[in-house]
UniProtKB/TrEMBL annotation:
Protein name: Uncharacterized protein
Superkingdom of origin: Eukaryota
Length: 94
C-alpha cells in the first residue's frame, strides 16, 4: 500500500469510528428523551387523573347540595302538613 492508500484507510477508519460514536451517543440521548417523554406523560396522566378526581368531587358536592335542597323542600312541605293538622286538631278541640 502506498502513502495515499494508508491515509485514505486511516481517514476512513477514523470516519467510521466517529460515525459509530455518534450513533452510540445519539442512542443514549434518544433513550433519555424517551424516558423524559414517558415521565412527562406520567405527570400529564396524573394531572388528568387529579383533574378528573377534582371534577368528580365537585360533581358529588353539587349532587349532594341538590339532594339537600330537595330534602329541605320536602321538610318544609311536611312542616306545612303538620301545621295544617295541628290547626285542624285545635279547631276540633274547641
Amino acid at each position: 500500500m502506498g502513502v495515499y492508500s494508508m491515509t485514505t484507510l486511516n481517514a476512513r477508519t477514523s470516519l467510521e469510528l466517529e460515525q459509530e460514536r455518534t450513533v452510540i451517543t445519539f442512542g443514549a440521548l434518544w433513550r433519555l428523551v424517551l424516558e423524559l417523554e414517558a415521565w412527562a406523560g406520567h405527570v400529564d396522566t396524573r394531572m388528568a387523573d387529579l383533574s378528573r378526581a377534582g371534577y368528580d368531587d365537585h360533581r358529588m358536592i353539587h349532587d349532594m347540595l341538590v339532594q339537600q335542597a330537595a330534602l329541605q323542600c320536602e321538610l318544609q312541605e311536611m312542616r306545612g302538613h303538620v301545621t295544617t293538622l295541628e290547626q285542624e286538631r285545635d279547631r276540633r278541640e274547641r
